[in-house]
Amino acid sequence: MQTLLRSATLTTTHLWFTVQASETMELDQHSGAALRGNFFHAIWQRFCTNQSAPTCAACPLHEVCPVSAIVAPLREDSTQGQDIPRPYIIIPPIEGPRRYQAEEQFSFGMTLFGNIVQLLPYIILSVPQLEANGLGHRLGEYQGRRGRFRVEQIEVTHPFTAERQTIYQAGKTRVNSQIISVQVAECLARAEKLDQQQITLQFVTPLRLIDRERLVKKAEFRPLFQRLLERYLALEQHYGNSEIFLGREEKIALLQQADGVLCSDDSTQWEELTSYSNRQKRSTPIGGLVGQATFTGMLTGLLGLLVVGELIHVGKNVVKGNGWYRIIS
What is the pLDDT of residues 140-166, one digit of tens each? Predict the structure, then answer.
């Protein structure tokens, strides 16, 4: 695993938005789905030149379109079908359900993967549309529209060093010659400092895993590691080193090692949640495990990927903010 990660070129770029409510706003406990929808519509409304197309896949421009690259990436030669992993994830506010009054502030994040950071200007230029569309519940006092907010600041942050760059302030973009991004090598260096026999993970947002056609409803290490490995390889191949490869025997050996890592303390609980899809016109379940779990066993060679997982998240609905965990010991 370490050899594989040393050949990786996938980077993660971490944006942090500080916003201020312009009007009363109501957000759910997990507002990542709403933020993801807000970004999708803002970028689509601002930059799509063929809005009559029913989907990005049906549009002849999708191969050269920044909208498709950001919100609905497509690759005709993908071995897993036409859709590939989205090149970003949302980091939702973790304050729980809130009703924000005008002038109150809150924050959320967005992580970009690999070379998609080249399209960062499109995200920044979509801010006015993001603000105009509003966020959260539709409120009666605004005749059924969402409360609006103002983006006060966008920073690029480094999750390991706390380094920060301001790239946008209230209508004014700041150009930086070098944007801070995290390299996989930094994840490996962090992993070397961790206990090689025991690790505790805090699942900040719901972790929803499907393993062997079953929903995983208790903390288990091998399903977590397997889904994380698959997600990392897909992201690396599409947004990092396209030639990276993990052989069948090496994968089997890694999963056998992961199968020997046991959950020695499970303080997680299942949280039921649903998300409404405007495209599908129905609600879908997005609930999962939250809380802490401690895993014990031979972790040498596995920890590098677990550190990467802090940054890329794992499981279902990661683009909406799910599957975010922190290594706390």
Answer: 989 999 999 999 999 999 999 989 999
